[in-house]
Amino acid sequence: MVNKRAETGFGPSPGDGAGTDEAKGEGIMASEMLSEPGSEYGPCLDENCGHRDCILTRQMSESICPEYGRRIGYDERFYRSENGYVQALCIE
Ligand SMILES: [Zn+2]
Ligand SMILES: [Zn+2]
After folding, report:
1. For a 10 Å CB count at each end of the chain, is N or C smaller?
2. How many Å apart are CA 12 and CA 5, to the nearest integer?
3. Quick one: residue 59, left, alpha or beta (phi over 0 = left, psi -120 to 50 = alpha)?
């Protein structure tokens, strides 16, 4: 089978996403969420477990959202910002 339709195609294929400049989009931040202690991805229930990841996660959950002064907590979406962690609820 010979394909004779050699398309002298100009016109980019629609799926080609190269060139879309999203560098200046300020709205494109990825939110994060902490898993609750004892859950699959969360820290240990034992607050004195001493695991580095667990300690970091607990510290993040204890950090205070600058918008309303509430803890970031668990199972709440938040963003990283210049002022620390900000709850998604507070800025969306
Ligand atoms: Zn642990
Ligand atoms: Zn907040």
Report:
1. N
2. 17
3. alpha
